[in-house]
Amino acid sequence: MTRLLIVGPQGSGKGTQGVRIAEEFGVPAISTGDMFRAAVSGDSELGQQVKSIIEAGDLVPDEVTSAVVRDRLSQADAAGGFLLDGYPRNVGQVAHLDEFLEDRDEALDAVIELSVPREESIARLTLRAQEQGRTDDTEEVIANRLAIYERETAPILGVYHARGIVDKIDGVGSLDEIAARIVAALEARGLTRTAGV
User: Fold this and answer.
1) So which residues are the catalytic ones?
2) What is the pTM of this model?
3) Res 50: pLDDT
4) 101 near 129, Cβ under 8 Å?
5) What single string gives the DSSP state of each residue in 30-72?
């Protein structure tokens, strides 16, 4: 059983690393973006609710986000553990996740904090926008997203630091170097990989 959370600002590479680390430890990588898309395509009552919120251009409220996550974590493939990416996004969602896990006599094993200088995040996101032709990803928009991360998401790290489960990882380097740093930190906690690197 390996239950992980990966946290980092936009452009830190957490989506890419999350998938790699989940494979190493034999658990599903669960991102809120993927969950929302699955909920919408699944056409459930919850999916319809999420769809109408997203189509209105609003942020999905904590209660709805938490309901989607609980639904996903209750599926069979997550019974042996998981890696969460994009949830919890704020301190309110930390409480929701705690409550859900406590009901199952579970807890997070580790929180991976990908640390990347702000300038590096902006440079990566700007490059990605150019490569993907995303004209809406201007430097102002990117800076605003990073400010939201710093204001809303970064404080969750304080909660997890108090529990002693945060591993701060240098997020600058090649994909392999960063993945190796994460794996080494998790193995130092006694977590066991199921796949060979």
Assistant:
1) 14, 89, 128, 134, 145
2) 0.90
3) 86
4) no
5) EEHHHHHHHHHHHT-HHHHHHHHHHHTTPPPPHHHHHHHHHHH
